[in-house]
Amino acid sequence: MQEKIHEYKITQPLTAERRKAILALIKDNAARSPWPIEYAWDKSKTRLLVTSKPMNLEVVFHPTKIEVYRDAPLWARMLITKKKQAQMLEAVVNILKELGFLEGRKPPKAKSAGK
């Protein structure tokens, strides 16, 4: 069952440069996960799908906000404490700041853009 876990108001929209930077950031950090991670943009290039055990995330980019959804079995949702969820959401905010979606920062150049 997919559930919306958070919504962020953004000051800067999704751009092709930010899209590349997001994929580079995921690629650079995928090894931190104990399970393999698959990730891709949908055809509209406004939905990022991140698939891994035991949870899948869908990040939907709108012009003025980002919505984060998760799909996980009940046992996995029960293991995510409020503290863990707060840590995860803090990490998302840090990523949004780093990529220039919040506070008017410019996105970094994507390291893996040419690959």
What's the CATH architecture?
Answer: 2-Layer Sandwich
Strand content: 25-35%
Number of helices: 3
Strand order of the largest sheet: 1-5-4-3-2
Distance between the termini: 35 Å
What number of domains? 1
Oligomer: single chain
User: How would you classify the helix and strand content by structural class?
Assistant: alpha+beta
Structure, described:
The protein is an alpha+beta fold. The chain has a single domain, classed as 2-Layer Sandwich (TATA-Binding Protein). Helices cover 32% and strands 26% of the residues. The chain has 3 helices and 5 strands; from the N terminus they run βαββββαα. It has helices at residues 16-29, 74-79, 82-98, and strands at 2-9, 38-41, 47-51, 56-61, 65-71. Strands 1-5-4-3-2 form a 5-stranded antiparallel β-sheet, with no helix packed on it. It starts with a strand and ends in a 17-residue tail after the last helix.
Outline of this structure?
This protein is α+β, with helices and mostly antiparallel strands and about 120 residues long. It has three helices and five strands; from the N terminus they run βαββββαα.
